[in-house]
Design a protein that fits this description.
Layout (H helix, E strand, L loop, with lengths): L2 H35 L13 E7 L6 H9 L8 E8 L5 H7 L3 E5 L7 H11 L1 H4 L4 E4 L5 E2 L3 H9 L6 E8 L6 H24 L10 E4 H7 L8 H11 L4 E11 L5 H32 L3 H11 L3 H15 L4 H24 L4 H5 L4 H16 L19 H4 L12
Parallel strand pairs: 1-2, 1-4, 2-3, 6-8
Antiparallel strand pairs: 4-7, 5-8, 6-7
Helix pairs in contact: 1-7, 1-12, 1-13, 7-13, 9-10, 10-11, 12-13, 12-15
Length: about 425
């Protein structure tokens, strides 16, 4: 008799989170199926667009030569694209190196408005006359490597009638280096491939992923870069969606970059990402809910459900916690939560299969418990740490003195969440 009230109370407490997890899992399962069926539209017979390849760079002297070298290897008519570098509040030789390598350079000095968003907005507004001469503007980060087919694929997507914004596949370079890069690759495979592909298959938007995107020039010049938030790319995509403009996803266009693996890098990047996503949820969940209620459609429901999906690690920790508690209630609860966890695992497996991950990446999935333990500690610390505010650039490998020794034996990683 004494156990029944306890089980009833615990079952009541678990009801709401279980219902939430079931909705999220069902949504992710549909998205996963859609990712397998998705085929991006592209017109390869269209005349090559004239493209401005725009790169915001803050103290990126060490990375620019490699980026420019990859841009020079693009399989795209050389007279149909130009490279522009925004040397933003630089204190190194970024501008000098960019000019030496043949790029056009805009130098910006504004310490009161730092960050990629303000830098892009400044360039688009002050250099609008130059950019208006192009059909499209493509954005990549300074530490990226650009695949030779990148511009050809993005231009072919933009040539499709009605397509005004395209996002490439943004993934991890050298994923087999260690378990951190492997798990980063797995996370990117879900967040940057499965979800945008599935959402576009549903008729939704593919979102913007920070780098490797292209816009029809008139659209981007009309908007500028209106979001200066911590998650400025995702916010801009939501602004566009609410204005009726969807992001097309083309996984055949590819950019890669090294992910941070050192403690000081991870701390800066993860705090920026997590706080940015929380801020977006607070501001856009009510808007997207109201938008769906006013204009019910599959695309609007997709946009609402997408913002309700937490980061991969938060989702996994929630599944495991709820499943553990359900053991005290009833086997049916446990079965439902295990089914939810299975749906999430299928998304990860699909991401790895669709991106043709090598066997070694699959083997590194055994390190997931280490990642979840670190993430749990990270989120607890984030809850009780005062946010200092403002944009902070993730330190690059060469800027972190002694970073290799610092991370030996740690269980810290990045890149496995959105």
């Amino acid at each position: 008799m004494t156990e029944f009230p306890f089980q009833l109370v615990l079952g009541t407490v678990l009801a709401l989170p279980t219902a939430y997890l079931m909705v999220v899992s069902a949504y992710l399962l549909v998205i996963c199926i859609g990712a397998w069926l998705y085929r991006p539209e592209a017109d390869y017979d269209a005349s090559p667009m004239r493209v401005a390849l725009l790169v915001p760079a803050h103290n990126e002297a060490a990375h620019l030569p490699a980026l420019i070298a990859s841009a020079q290897q693009l399989r795209y008519p050389r007279d149909r694209f130009d490279l522009f570098i925004i040397a933003d509040n630089c204190t190194d030789k970024t501008a000098e190196i960019a000019r030496q390598e043949g790029a056009h350079v805009f130098e910006r000095h504004d310490l009161d408005h730092r960050g990629k968003g303000p830098a892009l907005d400044w360039a688009l507004k002050t250099q609008a006359e130059i950019f208006s001469q192009y059909d499209a503007i493509s954005l990549v980060d300074a530490d990226m490597h650009i695949d030779p087919e990148f511009l050809r694929e993005l231009a072919a997507s933009l040539a499709v009638p009605g397509v005004e914004v395209v996002q490439a596949l943004n993934t991890v370079a050298h994923p087999e280096n260690n378990w951190r890069t492997a798990l980063g690759f797995a996370g990117f495979a879900v967040v940057n491939h499965v979800r945008p592909a599935g959402r576009c298959w549903l008729g939704g938007t593919g979102e913007l992923k920070g780098s490797g995107m292209a816009f029809r020039a008139p659209l981007l010049l009309r908007y500028g870069w209106p979001s200066h938030a911590l998650a400025e790319d995702v916010e801009f995509a939501k602004m566009l969606f609410l204005d009726g403009i969807r992001v097309q996803y083309n996984p055949r266009a590819l950019v890669t970059s090294e992910i941070p693996t050192q403690r000081s890098q991870i701390k800066v990047q993860q705090q920026r990402w997590e706080r940015g996503k929380l801020d977006l949820f607070r501001r856009y969940a009510p808007r997207l809910s109201w938008h769906f209620l006013r204009h019910p459609s599959v695309a609007n429901l997709d946009a609402l459900l997408d913002i309700l999906v937490p980061p991969q690690s938060v989702l996994a920790l929630t599944y495991l916690s709820a499943a553990a508690l359900s053991l005290l209630v009833h086997p049916l609860w446990t079965a439902l939560l295990v089914a939810c966890l299975t749906a999430d695992a299928l998304c990860i497996a699909s991401g790895l299969l669709l991106t043709r991950a090598p066997l070694r990446i699959w083997l590194y999935l055994g390190a997931v418990p280490l990642l979840l333990l670190w993430k749990l500690r990270f989120y607890l610390r984030l809850l009780f740490t005062r946010h200092e505010g403002g944009w902070q650039r993730t330190p690059r490998d060469g800027e972190v003195a002694g970073a290799g020794k610092e991370t030996q034996g740690t269980a810290e990683t990045a890149g496995t969440d959105e």
